[in-house]
Amino acid sequence: MPAARESLLDAAFAALEGRPWPRVKMAEVAAAAGVSRQTLYNQFGSKEGLARALVRREADAYLSGVERALSGASGAAGPRERLAAAAVWTVRSATENPLVRAVLTGCWNERLPTPVTSVTSVTSVTSVTSVTSVTSVTSVRTASPGPLPAPGELLGQARDRAVRLLAGDWPPGAVELPLACEAVARLALSYVVAPAPAADVARMVRTVLA
Fold it and tell me: Which of 12, 149, 163, 179 is the most buried (most CB within 10 A)?
């Protein structure tokens, strides 16, 4: 049920904007998504599973935005401008999305889901029917969203995408592309940790790469 899953994640994110994660109720998330609480548990297994999937989705959405910026979808033309656009996207994403900021920096506060580094497959029994001493059990296993990035790892993934997507356009004689991407990634992170207008990071990137 992909549509139900996305609706539940949207509802969870909206609930998180209004109150700390410990106060978000699974029943409220299900009701906001227009599905039953059982559907919610079938999809994610537990509140922890829902949190993992939500953080993973927001991290993936951030990386998709990085790729759009690096591909020139933001209107940036040359490779330096596209790298600057990716840095701006990083700062804006972290400013607007507390989950992206937390994954990028490793700083989680009491309002956010507590990050977990491992997942246990959850089996829930949905029906048990005894017929002439024969028991029928239907199990539903929650799909794992995959491991969550460790602090710094998400930025490293963004850097690696920059190296891959700009490799064919990087001007000869310029600073080595991997080094440039690493410097810009760390520069963007510094703007996340010490907030400043997102547009400023583009100017700084241009200065560094000049």
Answer: 12
Query: How many residues does the structure list for the chain?
Result: 210
CA-to-CA distance for 94 and 198, rounded, in angstroms?
Answer: 10
H helices of the chain, where? 2-18, 26-33, 37-44, 47-70, 79-96, 98-105, 153-166, 177-193, 198-209
pLDDT in tens, 5-14: 999 999 999 9
Is residue 39 within 8 A of residue 6, CB to CB? The reply is no
Name the one residue in this structure whose structure tokens are 């656009």: 85
**pLDDT tens for residues 42-51?**
999 999 999 9
Contacts of 2-8 with CB under 8 Å at 24 or more apart are: 4/33, 4/35, 4/39, 4/43, 5/43, 5/53, 7/33, 7/34, 7/35, 8/33, 8/35, 8/39, 8/40, 8/43, 8/44, 8/50
> Is 129 in a helix, a strand, or coil?
strand
pLDDT tens digits for 162-184? 999 999 999 888 889 999 999 99
CB atoms within 10 A of CB 121: 10
